[in-house]
Design a protein that fits this description.
By secondary structure, the protein is mainly β. Helix content is 7%, strand content 55%. The protein has one domain: Porin. It has three helices and 18 strands. It has a 16-stranded antiparallel beta barrel with strand order 1-3-4-6-7-8-9-10-11-12-13-14-15-16-17-18.
């Protein structure tokens, strides 16, 4: 915090921050070791893992009070690989601010508008409604939604968590409900991404729903373009969670169709976080049934131990199953530091 205060003071000295302005540096660094054996494989690969529980990232965000309840804001952030210090950009080109790059205006009464690279409609419903959040290494729901599993029967429905050149609108929260809509058009290839989501929070209960149609692959994507032959991917999902104090439970269902590959994947997920000692025991199960008569499922259990408000250590074990294949496994541990 002292370093952030020093940076803010420096920005103010340079005339970048004025009264009513707020600029901050933020991030999360997550490193560890994992050993993975994909389904159908006899080989276990052990490696350093950057971003086991949360993808390592850093960014700068800020806002300005324009008066009358109106605020201007911006956010730029990058994914980083702790293994070699490289910025994790896209597959087609090396993008610096792959995680986010947008500006916007917000009003307490009218809501907010954002313009630039930002999250797709499925992202928040996915990461907020499973016990492993946005863990690209361990979360079964994440594997069912983004980038595929550890050895999926086909290419993932979504290749990216964000959309380029997007414009979005979010309503103000009304009795715990926020509704958002987003669109992104590619003038070069002529494709349009569109969709929206709803998030509801009321005490111990929360619920969500989303729909999105993806026609173009973003430059920020880490994967090969699967939206070919001018055929989009359509998906919708619903989810809910309840915090009973002795355990927080989550459940989701999504149906995703990748029309370019004639693939339909239906996924349900259940998970829980149970306070145990100073930390939380985690468990998650996701099952995906494909229209190819293939079923892919993951089960992961683990423990997350906070060392402070910003630092935690974790350990996880997972098992993967797929129709007509031998089982796969993953186990690993790591350290996560937020700032």
């Amino acid at each position: 915090m002292k370093k952030l205060a020093l940076l803010a003071a420096l920005l103010a000295t340079l005339g970048i921050c004025q009264a009513g302005d707020s600029v901050s540096v933020y991030g999360i660094m997550d490193g560890g070791i994992s050993a993975t054996k994909a389904v159908g494989s006899t080989t276990t690969t052990t490696s350093f893992t950057s971003g086991g529980m949360t993808t390592s990232a850093f960014g700068i965000k800020g806002s300005e009070d324009l008066g009358g309840g109106l605020n201007a804001f911006f956010d730029v952030s990058s994914f980083i690989d702790l293994g070699d210090g490289a910025v994790k950009g896209g597959a087609a080109q090396q993008n610096l601010f792959t995680r986010s790059a947008f500006v916007g205006l917000s009003d307490k009464t009218l809501g907010s508008v954002r313009m630039g690279r930002q999250e797709a409609p499925s992202l928040l419903p996915t990461i907020l409604f499973n016990a492993y959040g946005d863990s690209s290494t361990y979360s079964p729901l994440w594997h069912a939604t983004y980038f595929g599993g550890n050895n999926p029967p086909s290419t993932a429905i979504y290749n990216d968590t964000g959309w380029d050149s997007a414009v979005s609108y979010s309503t103000p929260s009304v009795m715990g409900l926020t509704v958002s809509a987003i669109g992104s058009h590619n003038t070069t290839n002529g494709g349009t991404n569109s969709g929206g989501n709803a998030l509801y929070f009321n005490g111990a209960f929360a619920a969500t729903a989303y729909y999105q149609r993806t026609e173009i692959n973003s430059q920020g994507s880490f994967q090969t373009n699967v939206f070919t032959n001018a055929k989009p991917a359509d998906a919708y999902g619903v989810g809910a969670s309840y915090d009973a104090k002795v355990a927080k439970v989550y459940a989701t269902f999504q149906d995703a169709k990748d029309n370019s590959q004639a693939m339909d994947a239906k996924t349900y997920q259940v998970s829980t976080a149970v306070p145990v000692g100073r930390g939380s025991a985690l468990a998650e199960y996701a099952n995906t049934k494909y229209n190819t008569a293939t079923t892919y499922a993951e089960t992961v259990v683990g423990y997350d131990l906070p060392l402070s408000k910003k630092t935690d250590v974790y350990a996880n074990f997972g098992r993967f199953t797929q129709t007509a294949q031998t089982n796969g496994t993953i186990y690993g541990a790591g350290l996560r530091v937020r700032f």
